[in-house]
Amino acid sequence: MEAVNQSMVSEFTILGLCNSWELQAFLLVMFTFLYLITILGNIFIVLLIVTDLRLHYPMYFLLANLSFIDFFLSSVTTPKMITDFLKENKTISFGGCMCQIFFGHFLGGGEMVLLVSMAYDRYVAICKPLHYTSIMNRQMCIGLVMTSWIIGFVHSISQLAMIIKLPFCGPRELDSFFCDIPLVIKLACTDTYIQEMLINADSGVLATICFILLLVSYSFILFTVCLHSKDGVSKALSTCTAHITVVVLFFGPCIFIYLWPLSITWVDKFLAVFYAVITPLLNPAIYTLRNKEIKNAIKRLQC
């Protein structure tokens, strides 16, 4: 009975990004602006691809799903962070904390797999152009998207299952602006070595497999184009720069947050902000600025 009572935590205290009210006021305005731009930008891309018949191709179908995920991913932590800037005592309920963990890993894991799907689409388009329409058909596109959602869900539920039953009876302060497993698991009043190893292995395996598949896909693309064209490298980089940039921006913070052995608080907070706030904003911006068809579709709207 005592162990059960120990685990009945009603809320956690969030320390946030800083203690200065002046700085918090500045961050409130800045992050509110960035969040609105992120939401509007991702919704705009989804609606543009859905309504413009010239963009009804596999690459843009996957891009619309990426923006759809980023729309929700940015909403997992950012609204809570913004409202907390207005509060002196920042808290989050135990259930709310678990929800942030679940949806953060659900959407993050799904986005990893979706980025692999987008790389596979570019591989087929460049390396097997004559078979592109037969390989990347409607069923394949839907299957790739469904696979990303399923893997994201399985990854998230497995992570949550390893932490939700832990007893929490000691300090309840999270030195961040949101709940995440590396921070929450430190507050458990029991030995969590096994859980930490399993959680790191789960996240590490998913991230490593996705990253290797991405490297293999883009290596084949560069190799294939170089064989068939003197200007192959520049053409391949021009085609895939947007994809590669998004991959680096997405996987970079993940590797440092979940796989880097050293923990430096201000670095972790910066990377967490970058991952939760900046990355969902950069994805639509990068694809919009780098993609000729998207820019032409925007021009058609203006006419």
From TrEMBL:
Q: Which Pfam families match?
A: 7tm_4 (PF13853)
Q: Which residues cross the membrane?
A: 25-50, 57-73, 93-120, 141-164, 205-228, 240-260, 272-290
Topology relative to the membrane: Multi-pass membrane protein
One GO term of the cellular component aspect?
Answer: plasma membrane
- Keyword presence, Disulfide bond: yes
- PANTHER family, alphabetized: OLFACTORY RECEPTOR (PTHR48002)
Q: Please report the name of this protein according to its UniProt entry.
A: Olfactory receptor
Gene source species: Equus asinus (Donkey)
Gene expressing this chain: LOC106833357
